Amino acid sequence: MEDPAIAVEVTRHYARIAIATGSLIPTVILELLTCHVMDADPACTELAEWLEAAGLLDLPPQANNHQGADHS
């Protein structure tokens, strides 16, 4: 999926389920989000930071290097 907006919405859907049921977000969904974080998509980065703070995602070190970067 090349559209970051789809990655955000699909990840949010699974995050809601994970929070409500205590289950895990599927790995393929987290990998999709992480790919967009690596491409420095701001919405995906923000969601990934929230998931990481909530304990639902462990970002690889390379992804952390892209977070908060100013791409203006």
Describe it for me?
This protein has helices spanning 4-21, 27-38, 42-53, 61-66. The protein is an all-alpha fold. Helix 1 crosses helix 2 and helix 1 packs parallel to helix 3 (42-53). It is globular. The protein starts with a helix and ends in a 6-residue tail after the last helix.
Range of strand content: under 5%
Distance between the termini: 25 Å
* Backbone shape: globular
* Rg on CA atoms, Å: 11 Å
Order of helices and strands: HHHH
Helix content: 55-70%
Q: How would you classify the helix and strand content by structural class? A: mainly alpha
For the residues shown, what is the average pLDDT?
A: 87
Please work out how many helical segments DSSP would assign: 4
Number of strands: 0
Task: Describe the sheet with the most strands.
Answer: none
Unreliable segments of 5+ consecutive residues = 67-72
Which features characterize this protein?
about 65% helix; 4 helices; mainly alpha; about 70 residues
Topology of helices and strands:
Elements: H1 4-21, H2 27-38, H3 42-53, H4 61-66
Helix pairs in contact: 1-2, 1-3, 2-3
Report a brief summary of the structure.
This protein is mainly alpha-helical and 72 residues long.
